[in-house]
Design goal:
By secondary structure, this protein is α/β, with parallel strands linked by helices. The chain has two domains: 170 residues, Collagenase (Catalytic Domain), CATH 3.40.390; 63 residues, Serine Threonine Protein Phosphatase 5, Tetratricopeptide repeat, CATH 1.25.40. The protein has ten helices and four strands, in the order αβααβαββαααααα. α8 runs antiparallel to α9 and α9 packs antiparallel against α10. The longest helix has 26 residues. The radius of gyration is 20 Å and the shape is globular. The structure holds zinc ion.
Length: 260
């Protein structure tokens, strides 16, 4: 998850945010937390906005103070000269982007952007109304909320924190998300959702192995990519994903060689 810098999709502050949400997006109002969920996707899985709202209810309302919107996008903005360095780097390496945090500035509200294709790609359609997407979205959302805490109050967990390196803040944000997921899993339906994620990831992994044996490296890589989206700790999938891409590249290289 990459984030922590102010970014391109900015939403104007105060009253204009309401006008914008009415005119442009299917924004939904969340009375309890006063956070707009703004859908800017052309095609969004059914229930995605509801899932985001459900995630927000799991997060301490005090920690959400100051966040004005959660924006759902399905197309990443082009890299521009003024884009943050992390964004340029991630796009150059073609790595996935799950979301980021937009800090409040003089002209823009604080908010969180979620890149839905990278978030949703591994979730089978029949699981969309379950706790599976809730857990996956909550993990990203909580991570970005941690960045919001760091930016607004200067710490995530305790005032003694002193992050000298970016990765230290990233690690703390991951821990914040992990603690939320742990709390959610104490509820039986979320425990079940977590088990469903692991079973689905394992199924995709095995399907990938089968495709690899058939030398269908593109399909194998596609399955293993889904595994990583569901279970970021699945090191086998990560390893074999890159191996499949290597094989694919060398296959294509061979097929481009002219006959002698
Ligand atoms: Zn981050």
């Amino acid at each position: 998850m990459e984030c922590s810098e102010p970014f391109l999709f900015k939403v104007p502050c105060e009253s204009s945010i309401i006008v914008l949400s009415l005119d442009i997006v299917r924004g939904l109002f969340l009375p309890s937390q006063k956070i707009q969920v703004l859908n800017k996707c052309k095609k969004l899985p059914r229930g995605a906005v509801w899932q985001v709202r459900r995630c927000l209810r799991w997060i301490d309302p005090n920690h959400l103070e100051g966040i004005q919107y959660v924006e759902l996008i399905d197309k990443l903005p082009n890299v521009k000269e003024k884009s943050p360095d992390w964004y340029k780097e991630v796009r150059e390496k073609e790595r996935g982007i799950y979301g980021w945090y937009n800090e409040q500035t003089e002209t823009d509200c604080a908010g969180i952007v979620l890149h839905m294709p990278d978030l949703c790609n591994g979730i089978p359609r029949f699981l969309w109304w379950t706790t599976v997407p809730t857990l996956l979205i909550a993990k990203v959302l909580a991570h970005e909320v941690a960045h919001h805490l760091q930016f607004t109050r200067g710490y995530i967990f305790s005032r003694n924190e002193n992050f000298k390196r970016d990765w230290q803040e990233e690690a703390a944000a991951d821990r914040y998300a992990f603690e939320l997921i742990t709390r959610m899993r104490k509820n039986w339906s979320y425990w079940l959702g977590h088990e469903a994620i692991l079973v689905t990831a394992d199924t995709y992994y095995r399907l990938g192995v089968n495709r690899w044996k058939e030398k269908n490296y593109a399909k194998a890589a596609s399955y293993w990519d889904k595994v990583m989206r569901l279970d970021s700790d699945h090191t086998y999938a990560a390893h074999w994903y890159w191996r499949a891409l290597d094989m694919l590249e060398s296959d294509q290289g061979r097929s481009r060689k002219p006959d002698r």
